[in-house]
Amino acid sequence: MKGLHRKLLLTLLPVVILPLLALGLQSMLKLNEMADRNMELRLKSIAITINENLSNELRRNMVELAQLPNAEALIAYLATKATGIQKVYMGTRVQMMFHHLLVGNKGFLQLSLLNGDGNKALLQVGEGVDPFHDMAPSNQQFIQYWAENHADADQFNYLLYSPEIDEFVYKQGLRFIRSGPEISRDGGEPVQSYRLILTYSLRKFGELFLKQQEQQGIHLLLLDKLNVYIAGTAPLGWQSREQTGDEISLPDGDYLVRRLALADGLILQALIPKQLMTSEIRTLRMTTAAWLLISGLILLVMLHIVLKRQILNPVSELRDLMKRVATHEISEIEPVPIDDEMSELHNHFAGMLGRLAVSKRELERAAFIDPLTGIGNRAAFIRCLQSIVERHNQDLGHFYLTQLKLHNITWINNTFGAKTGDQALQFISHVLLQLLRNHRIANAKGVCLARSGSDEFIFTIPKLDPGASTSSELLADADTICAQLSSRLNQPVLLGNYAIKLRFSAGIISFPEIANSIEELMEGASKARRQAARYQGNYWIQLDSEMILSLREDKWLESELHKAISEQQCYVVYQPQYDLQSGQIMGAEVLIRWLHPTYGLVPPDRFIPIAERSGQILDIDLWVLEQACIFLGKLIAKGVVNFRLAVNASGTELSNPAYPEAVRSMLCRYDISPDRFGIEITETALVELDEVAQITVRALKDIGVEIELDDFGTGYTSLSHLTNLHLDVLKIDRSYTMQIESNPKLVDSILQLADAFSLRVIAEGVETIEQLQLLQQKKCHMAQGFLLSKPINENELAKLLFDDMQSRAAD
After folding, report:
1. Which of these, 770, 793, 794, 801, lies nearest to 783 by C-alpha position?
2. Considering only CA atoms, which of 669, 673, 680 is closest in space to residue 635?
3. 168, 727, 798, 799: which one has the fewest Cβ atoms less than 10 Å from its Cβ?
């Protein structure tokens, strides 16, 4: 065996070692060429990167420049025909906006606004320019070159030397047209063109992108096509020498000079230390030698130990074992006695496979188990529900799906702490597990229970089969389970140190009689649960076929709502609001109506919730606000004073931080004073959204609009809301107005509360003369309702206002 081993080594050594040595010698000869090529590639990569960065900077600059014509301050400045102090004031606003843009980007040096011909500077900001004198010389040169070479282009970039800044810069120009609404309100204004010119510093660009290479010892200089220095940092003691070639001697070392062309005639000059080149070559040679030595040693060792019985056969066996694991033929590997490294590797692989299986189970548990309650989460429930739906025709038959919401969990968290709220959720999950226990024993595959939201639970149970031997007393249906849960919650539940009354609402839907898809099941149960939430106490509703038809109709209306405004299916009406002491019309509530071409008139309480769920409510409310602004502008132009309009803001708007800015922008566009508008917010939305809504309401108050609290008395507003939000108006809900004769104390208490907070009061839903007289006696400020006027269009409202003005003028 030893003789054969020596013969094998003597045979294989020349075959392996000699080609390896030849390859190493050839590599040594190619190292210099490789180093030069590597440096050239590095420099080309640097040049490409700098070109891309410069292009990106110019492109980003042009994007920021293109946004300026849409800025409100610039629009107002260009649109106004005023002169003097007002023009100076508006110009100062634009200059401040320009100044902020320059400060925000260190590469921006100048920003100028010119007339369309470019022969007059309207506004100038930046280094080397006087905002109150003629335009900078570099801008004149840029405008001239633009007119001579690219007169038709609306956007133009050009590299030039700026004498007033004493450096090379990029001039970036944008020509735009401004017509739009005007501030002066005196008729149409002809279309005018203007130019914006941005001066971008190449020196600062160089400081940002060229100095990054100095850490590697390479100095980069940016030159123009005449070799004039623009940016970059040269090594100490370096001087340009035109006739000495690429090699330039310095006191502290030798440098190689390479030049690469960039965009717009720019030149990138690289100063590469020779020491850097030689060090790389030396490193490569040492690495190659070490690689040859190590490779030879490894080959000798491998040739020494590679024996078929010790290596090839065990490796082949382990490979086959891994293939069987990969193809899922086996799921675990039995360990073997350790007698060599291969058997040890075999056992390590077996242990790794076992740990992988454990990790997989843990990950699956984390992905599908709610950590607080220990039951499944929403993902687990959807997976279980899909399995039930796929098998329902085979062995599971029909089933119920129930969605349940614990209503006062937010109040519990805020009042008693999050720990108590967690205990409430754990208690509900424990009770549901107990109530579903018999179903799980009888048919575990048909029962799914999960916590689907922060305070929501959802479960499925099979329907009872009348022919089955199991009695109905043993297996309760979904309605009975909800009743049992309600019975458990009739008395306060002890959570830690607190006895708390819990309340829930639930929606039940059956499969497949009412819904036959997962989407319809989930949406139907949610719809039924939302309807049940309208009732006090523990309440649940089982969805019927009529409700599912309504749900499908809602989906259709949601798709139709996308084109309702664009196709002019929507219109607004106005509900007049009367002063109860003078009888004068003081304002109106703006209401939206939707007349569908096939469906007919869609009630607001039908499509507004759909718009809120689909996210279309903001566009609708802003459209209503715009129509109100247009109408109010007409009334102001005809001399109507002391008249205001109120528009509704849904809970979606109160949770949208962009809504106040949208309102402010709309009022500015139509030049409507904010105090002529009121924003109605519902008490329920204010209470549910709490702090988010309060921030939005304060932002609306800062604009100057009045805030009206609608449906007061139905949402349990706390005194802190009335104190912190500085409301202007309380609107008495129509349900209280209807009870004013039988229970006047409700209205009396609201009026006393409003008086304490200095709030005006508007009573809604006045429909009888008795209600009107009682409200007048109680000194209620204003009222609206069908007795006074139904919602009317703008022509009818305008006529009422003009008739009211004439009658008061005659008096």
Report:
1. 770
2. 673
3. 799
The pLDDT, as a whole number, for residue 295 is 75
CA distances from 20 to 16, 26, 663 (A): 6, 10, 78
Amino acid at the residue 537: G
To the nearest 10°, report the CA torsion of 691, 693, 698, 701: -160
CA distance linking residue 124 with residue 615, whole number of Å:
43
Task: Give the Cα separation of 197 and 200 in Å (integer).
Answer: 10
What string of H, E and C letters represents the secondary structure of 129-145? CCCCCCCCHHHHHHHHH
| pTM above threshold 0.70 | no
Would you state the structure tokens that stand for residue 415, as one six-digit string?
């009042």
Q: Please, are residues 727 and 718 in contact by the beta-carbon 8 Å criterion?
A: no
Looking at residue 402, its pLDDT comes to 93
What region does 406 belong to: left with phi over 0, alpha with psi -120 to 50, or beta? beta
Q: How many CB atoms lie within 10 A of CB 6?
A: 10
For the chain, what's the residue count? 811
CA 673 remoteness from chain centre: 32
Query: How confident is the model at residue 311, as a pLDDT?
Result: 61
* C-alpha to C-alpha distances, 4 to 297, 303, 309, nearest whole angstrom: 21, 12, 15
Listed in sequence order, the DSSP H helices in 267-399 are 274-305, 313-326, 341-368, 378-391
Burial of 38 (0-12, 13-18, 19+ CB in 10 A): middle
Helix (H) or strand (E) holding 571: strand 570-579
Residue 586's pLDDT is: 93
What pLDDT, on a 0 to 100 scale, did the predictor assign at position 771? 93
Tokens encoding 513? 């009689």
Structure tokens belonging to residue 248: 């330039």
In sequence order, the β-bridge partners of residue 256 are 247, 272
For the residues 131-136, what does the mean pLDDT come to? 70
The strands making up 267-273's β-sheet, listed across from edge to edge, are: 229-232, 219-223, 267-273, 253-261, 247-250
DSSP secondary structure of 71-100: -HHHHHHHH----THHHHHHHHHHHHHHHH
Residue type, 127: E
Find the helix packing angle between 31-67 and 2-29, rounded to 10°.
Answer: 60
**If you search the block for the tokens 């490409």, which residue do you land on?**
48
Terminal alpha carbon distance of the chain: 132
Phi, psi of 468 (to 5 degrees): -75, 155
d(CA 171, CA 12): 70
Report whether pLDDT(542) > 80.
yes
DSSP secondary-structure letter at 235? P
H or E segment to which residue 796 belongs: helix 794-810
Q: Which pLDDT does position 769 carry in this prediction?
A: 94
Q: What is the pLDDT of residues 703-748, one digit of tens each?
A: 999 999 887 766 555 566 677 777 899 999 888 899 898 888 889 9
HSE-up of 740 (CA within 13 Å, CB side)? 26
Gap between the Cα atoms of 351 and 712, Å rounded: 67
What is the spatial distance between Cα 448 and Cα 598, in angstroms, rounded to a whole number?
42
- The pLDDT of residue 397: 63
